[in-house]
Specification:
Helix 5 links the parallel strand 5 and strand 6. The protein has one domain: Indigoidine synthase domain (Indigoidine synthase fold, 3-Layer(aba) Sandwich), CATH 3.40.1790.10. Helices cover about 50% and strands about 15% of the residues. Helix 3 packs antiparallel against helix 4, helix 10 packs across helix 13 and helix 11 crosses helix 12. Strands 1, 2, 3, 4, 5, 6, 7, 8, 9, 10 and 11 form an eleven-stranded mixed β-sheet that branches. The radius of gyration is 18 Å and the shape is globular. The chain has about 300 residues and is α/β, with parallel strands linked by helices. The structure holds pseudouridine-5'-monophosphate and manganese (II) ion. Manganese (II) ion binds next to loops.
Length: about 300
Amino acid sequence: MTKPDLKLADEVAVALAAGDAVVALESTIITHGMPYPANLETARAVEQVVRDNGATPATITVIDGVIHVGLTDAQLEALARAKDVVKASGRDLAAVMVRKGSAGTTVSATMRIAELAGIKIFATGGVGGVHRGAEQSFDISADLTELGATGTTVVCAGVKSILDIPKTLEFLETQRVPIIAYGSDDFPAFFTRRSGEKADHRLDTPEEIAAAMIAHEALGSGTGILIANPIPEADALSPDFIDGTIADAVAEAERLGIQRKAVTPFLLARINELSGGRSLTANIALVKNNAALAAKTAVAHARLKKSV
Ligand code: PSU
Ligand code: MN
């Protein structure tokens, strides 16, 4: 099997060749997750957080049919301004590449590409999951099945209550994906530090997470690991405020008959509008917090790998 050509940024190629810390970053959050210019400012800030914590950022996307791992600032800006890019999960990549299209890559696509590039850890805001009403709609994100198939560690802030959190955790259990909360016993709900559900495991340092990554791989597990990193206390939203907003957005999506890959971008945009931008501010804070943890973990992972 031939691997697809990946266009690695020079600094990413150098870091990978040296066994140094690299953190993959997704791009659907840029193209479909946040409005311009907040998306560009956030993408730049997140890359800087990764650097400040000792790792090399590798934002992953498809440009004119070519998979890029690590972007120039000009490419990042073009992506953030683009209006005609596709939201690509893993299954969309081949068709986008053949017609030389451009795409923001979701968690599922980014995990797959990170693995091809040899990047073990990836930071994002929230992963997709089992949607509310999935027993009717069957709407379950491909992020979850990819977590069951690809050995990338994904750092997120839990999942939003646009999703059915208990069902999402059940599905990940079936997919054999370990769920590890960082510094907490609770599984966080993105905008808030607690979802009401417990995480399966708790680890308290980046070094422990790095050691768990190595052990999980050595066991031949073949699945990803979900690290759930609670939003910092100071940035968390009150559940009363955000839960009502989310319920309104979900009801509106249903009324309008929004389906399939349009559902999540619609909900994110509506929640931002209905919350008067407060959801966006919290979202930016938690993505940076996740990037910092991912970078520290990547550094610890690289150190452990070099010591054996
Ligand atoms: N959740 C967020 N922000 C996002 C996404 C999810 O809070 O930007 C994006 C991610 O790229 C994720 C994708 O992989 O949406 C999931 O889409 P879907 O639910 O259609 O699988
Ligand atoms: Mn879906």
